[in-house]
């Protein structure tokens, strides 16, 4: 009986896998952000966003494979969503804290440079001075360290959850009911 009981118990939990792979994805995202910042490229560029999306998606897939490997090849849809949300939250915390530290202590001019680039883009699109001024005011409200952390957590958690909606549907494998 003991052998049979342990055969159905998962050896890892969605939380442990989400945390493990959240750290891996988070540190990978930090490396990409650091490279873009050191090259003085905008982390809001299309390339940076695509790389972040691929890292997050790759982290989710790797987490699912790990979970299934240690759970007798089974993972329910709900477990997949949980892993993805936890992974995104951890990655968001790490990314947000890194951004806050970098922009506060290492290079506090990076936000000013990014703001100047955005103002230039808005001018090229023909926005009025009043519209640009309002956009700058709104952006400045979200440029503090705490706001960076909170926004990062929200964006990565929501992004990972939406990715998980699709990836978990593809990779799920429910345990048979009458096993």
Write structural notes for this entry:
The protein has 179 residues and is an all-alpha fold. It has helices at 2-8, 14-38, 46-69, 77-106, 110-124, 129-141, 145-171. α2 packs parallel to α4 (77-106) and α3 packs across α7. It is elongated, with a radius of gyration of 20 Å. Residues 1-6 have low confidence and may be disordered.
Distance between the termini: 14 Å
Number of helices: 7
Count all strands and give the number.
0
Name the structural class.
mainly alpha
Sheet having the most strands: none
- Rg, rounded, reads 20 Å
Secondary structure: helix percent: over 70%
> What is the 3D shape?
elongated
Round the mean pLDDT to the nearest integer and report it. 88
User: Proportion of β residues?
Assistant: under 5%
Uncertain runs are 1-6
The run of helices and strands is HHHHHHH
Based on the model shown, name its key terms.
179 residues; mainly alpha; 7 helices
Provide the fold topology:
Blueprint: H1 2-8, H2 14-38, H3 46-69, H4 77-106, H5 110-124, H6 129-141, H7 145-171
Give a short summary of the structure.
79% of the residues lie in helices and 0% in strands.
